[in-house]
Design a protein that fits this description.
This protein is mainly beta. The protein has one domain (about 35-215): Porin (Beta Barrel), CATH 2.40.160.200. About 10% of the residues lie in helices and about 40% in strands. The protein contains one helix and 14 strands, in the order ββββββββββββββα. The protein has a twelve-stranded antiparallel β-barrel. It has a two-stranded antiparallel ribbon with strand order 12-13. Strand 9 (about 135-140) and strand 10 (about 145-150) form a beta hairpin. The longest helix is centred in the C-terminal third of the chain and has 23 residues, at about 195-215. The chain is globular, with a radius of gyration of 20 Å.
Length: about 220
């Protein structure tokens, strides 16, 4: 009978392209999102700790920042005190860091982005085909730091981590005088959480340096 025909099913939607897997350098990878909170513990004039906790308040990482023009370095340890990553800064640079495994293997190198030297960081992973492998950049309109993996021309980038500014952070600039700041962090599934934490502090150091430079006419 006319009008009684069953309606044709809607056309099947094209499947979304698969997400390009994130490159990792440690075993600190989860296949579900990780929600972290970071705060700062100032232990002395030339040393502080960035403390990363999980959503339930348990300690995940400590990142010790040792300051000094010719001896600046960082050490990331897990909750048991085991060294996960170390980083050493090229003297007098803005953001040239070499990130290594505990055995000394070079895992990544960071630098500022040409034209954005005061605000953003690029990361090269030696084993990766694409250079720069990662980008760390502020999203001022949303008061966030964004990290993503560059997958090459014509391919969508893969989000690695998003960190939302917390205390003592205004317009994307950390309060350099107070040296006490917080972030609310989301690490994406498949991302290297230890690496993301290290990138975040290197980026924060860059902002702090430029905040001090602006305050004292150094920039």
């Amino acid at each position: 009978m006319a009008g009684d025909e069953a309606a044709a099913p809607p056309a099947a939607q094209a499947a979304a392209p698969p997400r390009t897997p994130l490159i990792t350098c440690t075993k600190h990878v989860s296949q579900t999102p990780q929600y972290l909170y970071m705060c700062t513990n100032n232990t002395s004039t030339f040393k502080n700790e960035s403390i990363f906790k999980s959503s339930d308040g348990s300690l995940l990482y400590r990142l010790q920042n040792n300051n000094g023009i010719f001896r600046e370095n960082k050490v990331l340890t897990d909750a048991q005190g085991n060294v996960v990553l170390t980083a050493k800064k090229f003297p007098l640079s803005l953001a040239k860091w070499t990130i290594c495994s505990p055995s000394g293997t070079v895992l990544a190198k960071t630098r500022t982005i040409s034209g954005m030297a005061k605000y953003a960081v690029e990361v090269d992973v030696p084993s990766a085909r694409i250079k720069p492998t990662f980008t760390v950049s502020p999203d001022l309109s949303n008061s966030q730091v964004l990290m993503w993996q560059n997958n090459g021309k014509g391919k969508e980038d893969t989000t690695m981590c998003t960190a939302t500014y917390g205390a003592n952070v205004a317009l994307g600039l950390v309060s350099a005088a107070v040296q006490d700041w917080t972030y609310h962090i989301v690490v994406e599934p498949g991302a290297d959480a230890a690496l993301a934490c290290c990138f975040l502090i290197i980026f924060t150091d860059l902002l702090e340096w430029n905040a001090l430079g602006g305050a004292f006419g150094m920039n």
